[in-house]
């Protein structure tokens, strides 16, 4: 299998944490990246080939492109716990809130302080 080099940007803290994991597992960041990317692509392609849109829905949720309520409705589940279990089983990261939503929560909490 031929390999190619590419350039990408990654959060400094994330790279530091990945290097720690690589060192603890006696591998490289490159090997970790390749394994995770391969898993993502192969799972997506498999779901797409079987016309199963559930994985696509989970990816959209993971990327923050859809909210939990829309994802649950599409997946036909009614419990956030089930959604998070599906995310874990799909080996996808949990979504992060948008910066504006996070700041709104911080502002609300700060407003509660005496």
Describe the structure.
The protein has helices at 12-24, 29-49, 54-62, 68-75, 80-89, 99-112. 66% of the residues lie in helices and 0% in strands. It contains six helices and no strands. It has one domain. It has 114 residues and is an all-alpha fold.
Keywords:
single chain; 114 residues; mainly alpha; 6 helices; 66% helix; 0% strand; flat
Short overview:
The chain is mainly α and 114 residues long. It has helices at 12-24, 29-49, 54-62, 68-75, 80-89, 99-112.
Query: Into which percent range does the helicity of residues fall?
Result: 55-70%
Distance between the termini: 62 Å
Let me know the number of strands: 0
Q: Proportion of β residues?
A: under 5%
Rounded mean pLDDT is 87
Number of domains: 1
The Cα radius of gyration reads 18 Å
Topology:
Blueprint: H1 12-24, H2 29-49, H3 54-62, H4 68-75, H5 80-89, H6 99-112
Helix pairs in contact: 3-4
